[in-house]
Amino acid sequence: MSRIYDISDVGSNDQLIKYATAAQLERLREHTGVSHAAVAQAIDMRDTTLSHELGDQNPPSNDRLKQLDELLVALAPDMEDVGLLSSLGIRLRRLADRTSLGAHIPASWAGRTLREPPSTEIDVLIKATVLLSQFLAADNANRAVSPIRERHKDQIKQTVEQLIMIGVATPSPLNVDALVLLGSFANYVDFVRDSLERRLRTWPLGFRVWRAISKLARLSEMKGPLAPRPLKVWIRDLLEDAEELREKSLYPGRSLDLELALVVPSEWSPPEDDWVGNVLLARAQNPNATLRERATAAHGLWHRAVANDRPDLAKTKSDLEKLVSAFQDDSASEDIVNGLRWLAATLQNVIREGNPICNSWPPAGGNWLATVEDAAELLESPAIPKNVLPGTKTLFKHSLLQNGGVERRHAIETLLAAGMAKPVTEALGRVLKKERKEAWLRIRALFALGFLQHRSEGVRGTLADACQDAFKSIADSPTPTKIDEMHAALFAIGDCFGADGAQKDARDIREELSDLLRDLVIEKRTNDKPDLYPIARAASYMLTVTAQPRENGKIDLAEELLKGLREHPDDVTRELSEWALDSRFDPHDGTIRPLFRAA
Q1: DSSP SS3 for 299
Q2: CA atoms within 13 A on the CB side of 376
Q3: Are 538 and 447 in contact (CB under 8 A)?
Q4: What pTM does this model have?
Q5: Which pLDDT tens digit goes with each residue over 228-260?
Q6: C-alpha pair distances (Å), 266 with each of 181, 234, 270, 275
Q7: Which of 20, 71, 226, 240 is 20–30 Å from 534 (CA)?
Q8: How many CB atoms lie within 10 A of CB 198?
Q9: Adjacent-strand bridge partners of 551
């Protein structure tokens, strides 16, 4: 009988990687008939060794995951969602060195690669890999790297800016590669940090730059005590400005600044001067922050205290117990009060058990929890191999119920890498169809749909309906959570259909929503209501990433509406719209420049 893969600890990278690998190999067997033994032979392994790596021994290395990705792509090119295992390994294991780079280029190709301008995002990654390889080679030989820096200074500067643009684009494995490369470049090129900070502080899409800075922190963590002090000071300065920066953020609910705080090495923020803990506690206490932010901050505060065995654990416990009482007593609007109570219940659960992560659901909830459980049962279908069905159900529940933001995202990433996007998006659609009251839960389902990027007709309809429903809801009673739901729906459309190759789907869903979008922009629904500015920001983002070329001289809907939004009173909306019109649309022929060229 096949081994059954479930997830008992969503914080265990080993379990997540084994589950995703087993799922892809089982999909391959069902799709092509290729057995595990044949896979092992193809990658020069014994079948028993492969079985052990998916069993009780250490999971496949990242090199092994790359081999499996290559094999899956070669043997099943028509199978959806293959080739993502290595990317998952990099994300979960926090790899940030040469072995984790996606492109390995023969040295003899370097000259031509550096001479020719990149025409695609892949070309940018290849050029960056070639440049970085020269730095690494000189470093390994104990030779000065300054001649390389001087010889290629113009190309390095351009490449760094293009990597930033790829890193802040809609979610994809290319983001990971770009961010890893940026983190590595920062060791050799001083201006990388300056470029990142400038983008973070002044550019509307800069909220995603937090991810690149997280990579720098992780790379420094690998160096231990040798990590440069200026980097620690720089990251502290940025995080201590996080509350101010979130006010200007295009997507504060994404909590990427908090994810940086959670990867800062514990020794950088000792109990006597716990500035990271202060950042997390301030966000957890902030009544104007979204539930996602407050939950990520609160659970992250507990996780770092327990996982790092910090001496200030008792203080953290006391702070969180006060938060639990505040969440329980909060007289919030009906669309979020159950979310706050669920957050309080899961915090009580981990504090009582002394666990860093919530892996079991406390006896709380109501009809909304039953909706999630019912949707999980929909996953029992032929599309999911029986041996990974338990793990798929568990990760699906974590994608909605887990209050730790990092762990919730890891659950979604693992489902994508495992090839489970199609059935999971159908179950998420069920939640959105059945759960009409709990806006906080709908927001999580919308984020998962955008991140999974499964562009089916069903997903398109689900997101369009969610956007229409949210628009009607804020017209009736615009609570902060309903505004956040509308924001999440527009962002999910941008993330799902703003990727390269999704132009037709993007055009279709925008056409379905054209009346709503025109009403939103032309009628200036958000212009004189600062509380609704987040919706204008999300609309500007969605139009920016789904922009289409002119057809027969007729301007695209995105170009039309961005011209309206560049007059918006909200600085962030106006600046992003102006940037998109100047950088994405060619003024001569109306073609669309890819984001990396817009650098």
Answers
A1: helix
A2: 19
A3: no
A4: 0.94
A5: 568 899 999 999 999 999 999 999 999 999 999
A6: 24, 16, 7, 11
A7: 240
A8: 14
A9: 554
Nearest to 130 by CA among 155, 164, 94: 155
Task: Kindly indicate the confidence band of residue 99, based on its pLDDT and cuts at 50, 70 and 90.
Answer: very low
Task: Give the SS3 label for residue 45.
Answer: coil
CA dist., res. 340 & res. 352, Å (int): 18
What are the φ/ψ torsions at residue 312 (nearest 5 degrees)? Answer: -95, 25
- Count the Cβ atoms, other than its own, within 10 Å of residue 211: 19
Nearest to 82 by CA among 95, 103, 101, 68: 68
Tokens of 425: 């998006």
What pLDDT digit, counting tens, does each position of 279-290 carry?
A: 999 999 999 999
Q: Which amino acid is at 1?
A: M
Across 40-123, where does the E strand assignment appear? none
Spatial contact of 10 and 407, defined as CB atoms under 8 Å apart = yes
- With contact defined as beta carbons under 8 Å apart, do 10 and 395 qualify? yes
Mean pLDDT rounded to a whole number for the chain: 91
- Whether the CB-CB separation of 410 and 16 falls below 8 Å is answered with yes
CB under 8 Å, gap of 24 or more: what pairs does 239-244 form? Answer: 239/264, 239/275, 239/276, 239/279, 240/275, 240/279, 242/279, 242/283, 243/282, 243/283, 243/286
* 446, 489 contact by CB (below 8 A): yes
Helices (H), 331-420: 334-353, 367-377, 389-401, 405-417
List the structure tokens of 51. Answer: 């079985």
Which residues are CB-contacts of 580 (< 8 A; sequence separation ≥ 6)? 540, 543, 544, 547, 558, 562
